[in-house]
Amino acid sequence: MKVSIIGCGLIGKKRALAIKDTDDILFLYDIDKKAAKKLSQEIKVKVANSIDEVFNSDSEVIIIATTHNKLAEISINALKNGKNILVEKPGGCNLEEIKDIKKASVEVNKLVKIGFNHRFHPAFQKAKELALGLNTGKLMFIKASYGHGGRLNYEKEWRMNKSISGGGELLDQGSHLMDLAAWFMGELKLEYANLPTYFWDTDVEDNCFLALSNDTNKLAWLNASWTEWKNSFLFEIYYEKIKLKIDGLGGSYGKESLSCYTMSPSMEPPAIETWDFESTDISWEDEFKSFKESIQYGKPICGNINDALNAMKLIDTIYKK
After folding, report:
1. DSSP secondary-structure letter at 142?
2. Is residue 11 domain-shared with residue 108, that is, in the same domain?
């Protein structure tokens, strides 16, 4: 598939490396010309002279991996130029921007994929398979935590500049947790939220604590943190008859694994089956492959604009409290 990438930072690079051997990357573009040139030299792809050159190209898909404040504007322009788009989560800075992207996509009949790549980690793909295939009983609740500790001068980076990011850890890692919880529980509503700033000298939250519920009042208790110090990820899904536990995401978050705990009728210690996954993060490749299948064969988009809209409705409600 013919693809161009706007945004050549960390995530743009991950996207490029994930598809460079399977798809035809026509152009790279970034307002930071040094970043674009560096990635261009690494993957041997041409740098566009302007963003309009990307919009006017033969690209079937444009991947948008910029700072939050540019996501919606670029997404809408790409759609109006007849491109399908994969735009990084959360898709924009606020609810109105997500609504505008959806409106534009309907008007031009082009597809929007939101970069909720965590759905495509192999542990989550396997967990979804088990949840659909096993006799799990009813879902009871979800507990999850996701955090890192930043780095020296982290408070000076764009993620902690509200005018650029739109918010703090709720928008950053929190949006991933909300999306994953909704993937298993359905659309969620707010029960409780607390957005403290404990450590970093910033005007956005460095932690979020959330209680969300679905239409049957099952609860998801979520924490995303910029004060974790040692990067960590844990996501536990509790059913009446089994528990699914996803631990780690590979790399600095630790080996990715999935454990399935199956309760015995006599309530003795459960039988445990564990799957360990390779440390290389293949979610980026698998997510784009899934999106291509949506474009080519009409397959439902896993992590679509409505998923982003539902997450941003929650975020909007929380920030207004």
Report:
1. E
2. yes
Q: For residue 302, how many C-alpha atoms fall within 13 Å in the half-sphere facing its CB?
A: 21
Residue 233: how many other CB atoms lie within 10 Å = 25
CATH number at residue 274: 3.30.360.10
φ, ψ for residue 140, nearest 5 deg: -105, -55
Residue 297: burial class (beta carbons within 10 Å; 0-12, 13-18, 19+):
exposed
Note down the domain range covering 161.
122-280
Residues 270, 127: one domain? Answer: yes
For the record, the structure tokens of 233 come out as 């990820």
Q: For residue 195, what is the enclosing H or E element?
A: none
Question: What CATH number is attached to the domain comprising 75?
Answer: 3.40.50.720
Q: What type of residue sits at position 58?
A: D
Rounded Cα distance between 315 and 321, Å, is 10
Alpha-carbon distance 127 to 108, whole Å?
Answer: 35
Residue 240, pLDDT > 90, answer yes
What are the two backbone dihedrals, phi and then psi, of residue 200, each rounded to the nearest 5 degrees?
-75, 145
> Going edge to edge, which strands form the sheet with 207-213?
189-194, 207-213, 219-225, 139-147, 232-239, 242-247, 257-262, 271-276
Torsion angle (degrees, nearest 10) of CA 117, 96, 93, 125 = -10
Residue 280's pLDDT band (boundaries 50, 70, 90)? confident
Statement to judge: residues 127 and 90 lie in one domain: no
Both tokens of residue 169?
């850890």
Q: In the chain, how many domains are there?
A: 2
Of 139, 217, 224, nearest in space to 175 by CA:
224
- What pLDDT is stored for residue 321 in this prediction? 85
